[in-house]
Amino acid sequence: MQNKTGALAGIKVLDLSRILGGPLCGQILGDHGADVLKVEPPQGDDTRAWGPPFRDGVASYYFGLNRNKRIQFLDLSAPEGQQRVRELMAEADVVLENFKVCTMEKWGIGYEQMRGDLPRLIWCRVTGFGADGPLGALPGYDAAIQATAGLMSINGEAGGDPLRVGLPVVDMVTGLNAVIGVLLALHERAASGQGQLVDAALYDSGLSLLHPHAANWFMSGQLPQRTGNAHPNIYPYDVVRTGGTPVFLAVGNDRQFALLCRHIGRPELAQDARFASAGQRSVNRVELKALLEAALSQADGTRLADELMAIGVPAAAVLNVEQALTHPHTLHRQMVVKMGAYTGLGAPVKLSRTPATYRHAPLSEGSGFLPDDAADGGAR
User: Fold this and answer.
1) In a designed cystine with 335, which of 102, 287, 346, 356 is the match (CB 3.0 to 4.6 A)?
2) What percent of the chain has pLDDT over 70?
3) Domain range spanning residue 311?
4) What are phi and psi of 262, to 5 degrees?
5) How is the beta sheet containing 247-250 ordered, strand by strand?
6) 24 and 31 Cβ atoms separated by less than 8 Å
7) Which pLDDT does position 374 carry in this prediction?
8) Would 357 be classed as within a structural domain?
9) Which residues share a beta bridge with 345?
């Protein structure tokens, strides 16, 4: 009997994508029960070489994006590979692909060429800029999209140079948007019986991340500037120095600010006209930061953050990656997954009746989709 614990159990996904956005989408669908078959070229996904570190010649980068998939190697530029993909598409509910626009059409297996024979198929295309328009069909890469979508212009220290966000945020958000699009299309298909094209472009996803900077510019016409760790609209919403670990304060209202001031022994700051309202605190942020850091110069940052959270003031010690991944709450939330030699990040969406499951470590092989009655259980 087929495993029914996943919300997407029974959905078959043909993952023809590589690198990040598409594979992340496929992994999320697989975590929630879909039967995902990933087709890679004979030499494998490019990210197998994106290291170090490596295990058995395969980079950690690849391991982070290809859980809960079975792998088949096909040369899609060859007639035999194209025919095999046609057969797999006929069995699939969803196709994921992020080839350069017109590549699959050149091979005779593009969306418009296949939709007539496979009207229920949901086709998710991840591209850099979409298929048309002034930048249409151009290749897109995360950092380049961060640059052209304005993200680098608002990231970095005040007065410093534009800075890439330190993780592939555009690729990852595009993968999430692709998941949303696939789920919307699956829901709609349940009523109409028809598939459709899901268009997830890195450029669109990059622009969608511009809140509140886009909203600020739409209203004021003033060009957003880099503010380092500080929020452009709210203060104190910034990293402050302490006598130990730096602490991020995320004070969003007057009540929280009064609690903060009282806790650090400076209750009069909450009554100071320069800081008495959110707008005034934002305008006078330079003076306020200096006063806060002077008051905290002897404080233990980690203890301070815990104390502030306990009284209702949002705050957090600034942890490194190791500290974050080994934090007791990370483990409590099951955000670290182990399967044999494989360790990865857990699924962030928790469903009460149909939770994510982890059934295939990366690199598991398979020649096709599982039969509908195949057993496919595994540890959560």
Assistant:
1) 346
2) 97
3) 237-325
4) -65, -40
5) 237-240, 247-250, 315-317
6) no
7) 60
8) no
9) 336
Six-digit token string for 204: 């669109």
Tell me the three-class secondary structure of the chain, residue by residue: CCCCCCCCCCCEEEECCCCCHHHHHHHHHHHCCCEEEEEECCCCCHHHHCCCCEECCEEHHHHCCCCCCEEEECCCCCHHHHHHHHHHHHHCCEEEECCCCCHHHHCCCCHHHHCCCCCCCEEEEEECCCCCCCCCCCCCCHHHHHHHCCCHHHCCCCCCCCCCCCCCHHHHHHHHHHHHHHHHHHHHHHHHCCCCEEEEEHHHHHHHCCCCHHHHHHHHCCCCCCCCCCCCCCCCEEEECCCCCCEEEECCCHHHHHHHHHHCCCHHHHHCCCCCCHHHHHHCHHHHHHHHHHHCCCCCHHHHHHHHHHCCCCEEECCCHHHHHCCHHHHHCCCEEEECCEEEECCCCCCCCCCCCCCCCCCCECCCCCCCCCCCCCCC
Residue type at 225 in one-letter notation? Q
197-233 pLDDT, tens digit per residue, is: 999 999 999 999 999 999 999 999 999 999 999 999 9
- Residue-wise pLDDT for 228-277, tens only, equals 999 999 999 999 999 999 999 999 999 999 999 999 999 999 999 999 99
Same domain? For 180 and 275 the reply is no
Lowest mean pLDDT among 107-111, 368-372, 376-380: 376-380
Same domain for 117 and 191, yes or no, is yes
171 is catalytic: yes
- Structural contact between residues 203 and 130, judged by C-beta atoms closer than 8 angstroms: yes
* CATH of residue 180: 3.40.50.10540
Q: Are residues 66 and 200 in the same domain?
A: yes
Does residue 224 lie within any of the structural domains? no
Kindly report the backbone phi and psi dihedral angles of residue 87, in degrees, each rounded to the nearest multiple of 5, phi listed first.
Answer: -65, -40
Structural domain includes residue 5: no
User: Tokens 């496979």 map to which residue?
Assistant: 118
Indicate if the alpha-carbon torsion angle 264, 270, 272, 274 is positive or negative: positive
The CA distance from 311 to 59, in Å, is 44
Catalytic residue among 171, 204, 238, 376: 171
User: Using CA atoms, how far apart are residues 164 and 91, in angstroms rounded to an integer?
Assistant: 41
pLDDT band at 373 (very low <50, low <70, confident <90, very high): low
**Contact status, residue 60 vs residue 54, Cβ threshold 8 Å:** yes
